[in-house]
């Protein structure tokens, strides 16, 4: 009997462990993380089996994922009357009973992802006045009829991904007039017929996601005169099935891209014929293989944007016609070896061109883009672009170019006035591209409209005071990761011409000191980033030239702040001194006092700690209090010492006098 009892107790204990049922809701409630007081709480992964009493009834946003709530009753959430958002991901929910949310008038989002649902009562979603977002991802659904339709008239998004649905159709009773997003990705939908599509007719401007469904056929005319905001058939093997099925439809964004691990047919012009009889503005065909023929583009003439990322082109065909509408062309991750291989003249209206992450070393060629009179944005980052005398001939005729991204490329030599052809440039990004810029006059001479210049980690010649001449409109300059001779920012530095500068990044520049007047010309500076340098208190006098600046001095070598520097700090708006070896002894007393009185100016006080003396190392500066006045014992010793000195003086003087008179 006893052994049976013992085994029973063991089992009970195991069950407890496995289901976490034994954990009392009240006791763990304290562990819910308060994200915003009285509003937002995160109770995820706490093994709770009920809503903790301690959760305030004013809670609006509740993450209750990864707990244990097998039945949702009308009482489960009744106390939380203000709930707006409720995440119940993986709570092992099987049953959702009548009126489970009856008290939750304001509830607009319910997430039920990953629950093995067995039953949902017809009135389960009664209560909320405007339920807008429902997520049933991975809930084992085999039919949409499982979801009760009562009180879903306001539904805007319905996520049904990763289930076993075989049709896109919604029941005729399903209210779709407000539906904006229907997500059916990764189900088992193989056939699409007229009737199913017709059930979505009320949802104008719908975003329909069918990614990862293996679609075998679409009934002829199924999408006739339907309009969609976006249709996603990602991972489709044969795009012609989709395009033939979409005859006479109007679709803003059509996603027909695929993935690297899917075996796909090469796309031939015939497979794209269907596009000629429908209206599409934005088309994505990423990761496909194409046959090399201008005819591929024959039905693309209505497109405004075309994404051919990673689609194995080493050149685009010549003789493409009728692409006058195309505004944006994405050719990232292809294998062109010369920019001229884009045959840019085929796309005369382009305003945005992206050739990012090219797999070959990309040569900029000579005037390859000169026919793109309207080009505003050009991104050539991560494309192993190299150039010996940049950039007048390379960027010929790009008179309206505003954004140019040449970051993460091979070394460039910039000519004098390198951007003569693009006087409208507003943003230039050269980050992590080594620049050789000994040219005179400055390579940026004519860029009066330039607002943002990223020269981070470019190994620029910082000792050339004329390097940035001409940039009188520059607002944001990133020079991080460039070094200065002897680690000193001199008085006559390259920042002098930048009268409009608002943001200056000088982090990780190996700086040990800023000379007096080094920052004198930067009257509009709002943010100065000097993180990760080797600045000490003696090298910071130049900061007194700034006013109202947000000063970031984190991770330097500052120990003691002398009174002069304290005055400079006082006139700034925000200061970050975290990760400095600050001295917490009486020699830094003025600063420690100032720090406590100016906490509202201090950024990251948690990481602003003492570096000295050793017993205080790591202590937060805001918590340190020193008494630097002399103590009673100290005063006693000082008085004693002074008295001793006087006594000794009298004794010695007396001896001297006595000896002197003895001699007489
Ligand atoms: C939270 O609610 C309590 C009790 O209603 C109230 O005392 C407190 O001020 C509230 N806190 C905030 C940040 O609103
Ligand atoms: C909640 O449901 C139970 C039956 O499950 C019922 O007896 C009770 O009246 C309901 N409470 C409210 C407030 O409707
Ligand atoms: C259609 O939906 C998109 C986003 O889903 C929105 O930006 C657009 O304004 C909508 N168009 C109409 C006509 O409602
Ligand atoms: C497309 O529309 C045209 C004209 O409205 C019609 O002749 C044609 O049959 C339609 N095609 C399909 C597949 O519905
Ligand atoms: C496009 O529609 C026309 C009639 O509207 C039809 O003759 C033609 O075959 C269709 N083309 C394709 C590729 O379906
Ligand atoms: C330039 O490209 C790089 C890499 O693709 C990217 O990280 C950066 O944000 C881009 N710059 C701008 C200003 O968008
Ligand atoms: C360069 O700086 C700009 C402005 O801060 C930023 O938008 C861009 O992302 C930076 N480039 C890189 C490669 O980080
Ligand atoms: C500058 O500081 C870094 C760490 O922040 C250190 O590794 C380096 O040795 C210092 N350089 C000099 C010259 O003090």
TrEMBL record:
Coiled coil: none annotated. Residues 580-629 form the LRRCT domain. Its main location: membrane. Residues 1-25 form the signal peptide. It is a single-pass type I membrane protein. Belongs to the Toll-like receptor family. This is CD180 antigen. It comes from Monodelphis domestica.
């Amino acid at each position: 009997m006893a052994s049976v009892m013992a085994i029973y107790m063991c089992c009970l204990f195991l069950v407890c462990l496995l289901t976490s049922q034994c954990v009392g809701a009240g006791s763990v409630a304290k562990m819910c993380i308060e994200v915003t007081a009285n509003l937002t709480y995160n109770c995820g992964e706490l093994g709770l089996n009920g809503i903790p009493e301690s959760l305030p009834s004013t809670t609006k946003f509740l993450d209750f994922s990864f707990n244990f709530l097998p039945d949702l009753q009308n009482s489960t959430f009744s106390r939380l009357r203000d709930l707006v958002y409720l995440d119940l991901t993986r709570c092992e929910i099987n049953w959702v009973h009548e009126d489970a949310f009856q008290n939750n008038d304001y509830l607009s989002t319910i997430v039920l992802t990953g629950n093995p649902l067995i039953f949902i009562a017809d009135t389960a979603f009664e209560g909320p006045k405007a339920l807008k977002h429902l997520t049933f991802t991975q809930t084992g659904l085999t039919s949409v009829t499982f979801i009760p339709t009562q009180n879903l008239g306001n539904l805007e998004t319905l996520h049904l991904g990763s289930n076993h649905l075989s049709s896109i159709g919604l029941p005729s009773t399903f209210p779709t007039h407000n539906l904006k997003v229907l997500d059916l990705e990764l189900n088992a939908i193989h056939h699409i017929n007229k009737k199913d599509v017709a059930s979505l007719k009320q949802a104008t401007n719908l975003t329909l996601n069918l990614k990862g469904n293996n679609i075998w056929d679409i009934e002829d005319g199924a999408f006739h005169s339907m309009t969609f905001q976006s249709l996603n058939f990602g991972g489709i093997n044969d795009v012609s099935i989709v395009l033939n099925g979409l005859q006479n439809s109007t679709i803003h964004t059509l996603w027909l891209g695929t993935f690297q691990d899917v075996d796909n047919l090469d796309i031939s012009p015939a497979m794209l014929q269907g596009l000629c009889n429908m209206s599409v503005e934005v088309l994505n065909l990423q990761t496909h293989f194409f046959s090399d023929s201008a005819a591929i583009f024959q039905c693309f003439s209505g497109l405004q944007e075309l994404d051919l990322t990673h689609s194995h082109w080493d050149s685009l065909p010549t003789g493409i016609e009728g692409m006058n509408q195309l505004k944006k062309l994405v050719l990232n991750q292809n294998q062109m070896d010369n920019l001229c291989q884009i045959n840019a003249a085929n796309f005369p209206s382009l305003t945005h061109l992206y050739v990012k992450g090219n797999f070959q070393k990309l040569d900029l060629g000579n005037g390859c883009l000169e026919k793109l009179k309207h080009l505003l944005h050009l991104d050539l980052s991560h494309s192993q672009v190299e150039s010996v005398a940049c950039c007048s001939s390379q960027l010929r005729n790009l008179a309206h170019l505003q954004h140019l991204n040449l970051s993460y490329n091979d070394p460039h030599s910039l000519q004098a006035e390198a951007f003569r052809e693009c006087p409208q440039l507003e943003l230039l990004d050269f980050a992590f591209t080594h620049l050789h810029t000994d040219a005179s006059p400055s390579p940026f001479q004519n860029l009066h409209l330039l607002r943002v210049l990223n020269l981070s980690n470019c190994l620029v010649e910082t000792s050339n005071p004329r390097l940035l001449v001409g940039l009188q409109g520059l607002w944001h300059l990133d020079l991080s990761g460039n070094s200065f001779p002897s680690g000193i920012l001199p008085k006559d530095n390259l920042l002098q011409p930048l009268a409009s500068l608002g943001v200056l990044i000088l982090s990780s520049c190996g700086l040990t000191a800023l000379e007096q007047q080094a920052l004198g010309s930067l009257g509009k500076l709002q943010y100065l980033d000097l993180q990760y340098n080797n600045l000490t208190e003696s090298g910071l006098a130049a900061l007194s030239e700034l006013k109202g600046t947000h000063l970031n001095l984190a991770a330097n070598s500052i120990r003691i702040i002398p009174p002069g520097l304290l005055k400079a700090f006082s006139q700034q708006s925000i200061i970050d001194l975290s990760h400095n070896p600050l001295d917490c002894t009486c020699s830094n007393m003025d600063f420690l006092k100032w720090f406590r009185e100016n906490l509202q100016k201090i950024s990251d006080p948690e990481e602003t700690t003492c570096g000295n003396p050793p017993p205080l190392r790591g202590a937060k500066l805001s918590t340190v209090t020193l008494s630097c006045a002399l103590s009673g014992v100290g005063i006693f010793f000082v008085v004693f010492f002074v008295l001793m000195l006087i006594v000794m003086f009298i004794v010695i003087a007396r001896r001297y006098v006595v000896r002197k008179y003895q001699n007489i």
